Structures are given as C-alpha cells and as structure tokens.
Amino acid sequence: MQKGKGFILVAASTSKERRSVSQALRKLDPDIPITEIDSAAALRDALAERPVDVLFLSEEFSNGDGLDVIEQLGQASRGIFTILMADYFSPESLARASKAGLYDCIQTPLSEDDLKRILKRREMQTNRLSALVVDSQPAARHIIFKLMSESRFDLMTSEAATGLLAISLCRSIPYHILLVDADTKDWNGPEMVKFIQKRQAHCRIILMSSKEKERLADQYEAVGLSGFLKKPFYAKDLDRLLHSILGIPVSNLLKPNFFEEQRPLAQEEDEDAAIASDSDQAANQQEADREVFWL
User: Fold this and answer.
1) 20 to 30 Å CA-CA from 3: which of 33, 114, 278, 282?
2) Is 253 domain-assigned?
3) pLDDT score for 274
4) Whole-number Å distance between alpha carbons of 28 and 64
5) Which residue(s) pair with 55 in the sheet?
6) pLDDT at 267
7) Residue 201 pLDDT greater than 50, yes or no
8) Phi, psi of 207, deg, nearest 5
9) Domain boundary among 106, 125, 144
10) What is the largest CA-CA distance in the chain?
11) End of a domain among 59, 92, 125?
C-alpha cells in the first residue's frame, strides 16, 4: 500500500458517471486529488505513474466487466482500496468482488454516507498499525499471521510465545493491537491486561479462545477488553472487529446481509410508481363511473 495520501481514481465508461463521482467526493473534500479514467489502458497507465489510494470502478467499464479488468491488472492493483460501483449487485458479483480482494461494493447513485466512510478508511491507512500476537502454539501464530497479512489494514505484526515475553515487549514497544490467546503460557489473565492497559493506554486488547466467550466473560469483565475472537476465525472476522474497535463503519463486503439490504433497482421503483399510478387512475375511473351511474 502506498503511504501518505495518493490519488483517487474514478474509472467509469461515461463522462457523466465520472463527473458525478468526482463532484460528490470534492463536495466532501475540495482538495482531494482525483483522476478520471475512461479505459482499461488508461487505468493501467495511471496505476504505474502515480501513487493511488482508492479506485472507484464501475462494474460495467471499458466496454466490458470491471471485475475482469481487475483480474487483468493483477499485481498492479494490489494494496489499493478498490470500490466497485453498480446500480445493483448480484450474488455472483459480490462473490467475485470478495474473492478478488476488493474493499467495497457501493450502489449508484452514491450516498454521502458511503463516501464518508471510504474517505475515513483512506485517512486511517496513512497510519501503520503495530500488532502483537500472543499465543503459545507456533502453528496458531502462523495462521494468525497469515490472516493478518490478508487484512485490509496495514499491520506491522510481531509475536510472543508467552505472557511474560508479551509483557517484556510491551514495556519497550508501543502497540495498537494485541491479540492474545487466553490459554497462553504465563498469561495471568486480567492482571496482565491491567498491566498493559496502564502502560499503553491506546492499545486495543483482543482475546482469542477456542472456548465460548461466555465462559471467559466473568473473568475479564472488569478490565474492558476491546473484543473477542472465537477460534477458528477468518480474515473477514478479524477485519470486522478491527473496523469496529477503530471506529470505522465496515464495508458492504463485510456485511453478511448486504445483498438483501441493497436499495431496489431504480427500474423497479419506476415500475412500482407506474403500477401505483395505474391503480390511482383505475380508482379514479371507478369513482367517475359511479358518479355517472348515480346521475
């Protein structure tokens, strides 16, 4: 991921759509650096020439499929927050977007809330987060490292095999995130949480366990953990939690029910309006017929 604030690319086939997205972004930030893109070739050139933070990409782009374009770009688009735009998303499109590592899918016309959370996420990316994984099992640490590498956050991760080593590291290294297995060797539960919180007030401590959360709730209730992950968990679970504890609304691709919660197609709205209009006309005609009859 490019550090600092790079360009935002708006890639859509029509000038009207590109202009609409650019204007909506500049309404929120007049100084935001935006480049409008009208073809796959121009998109590839732009990614090669300048640092890019965010790519807004129309699902129907460059006389084809925007997701096909992303696959063709390969490593050129890696580490960039790619936002797919469409009037409505099919389950297949959402599955492909998730598999391709896109950050979000948003419906057009774009809502201000969607744009605000994407810009907030972009702002957060300028700050690299340091994370410590505390777990006695080497295989478990390896898996968690892999999941963190797949996270959409830029994480600088280190590890500790014991609670005592974690405490030692926390004395000298400031951490933003601490993921600790409750059964780690020498991990003295709430007392160690208090120790770390006292020395690192901004550290968010996440408890991991194969046990149910309820079995640990009473033990850790007084220390105010930032979150809990039940093993086994996945990259999406970790990302949802990181968004939550960092105060950033989650992307639509991280919402399990986004497909069902989408706004209906504008065409469907027009059809509903037409049906309602026809019903009104029919009702008026019936009323007129009754008036004629009673005359």
Assistant:
1) 114
2) no
3) 44
4) 30
5) 9, 82
6) 52
7) yes
8) -90, 135
9) 125
10) 96
11) 125
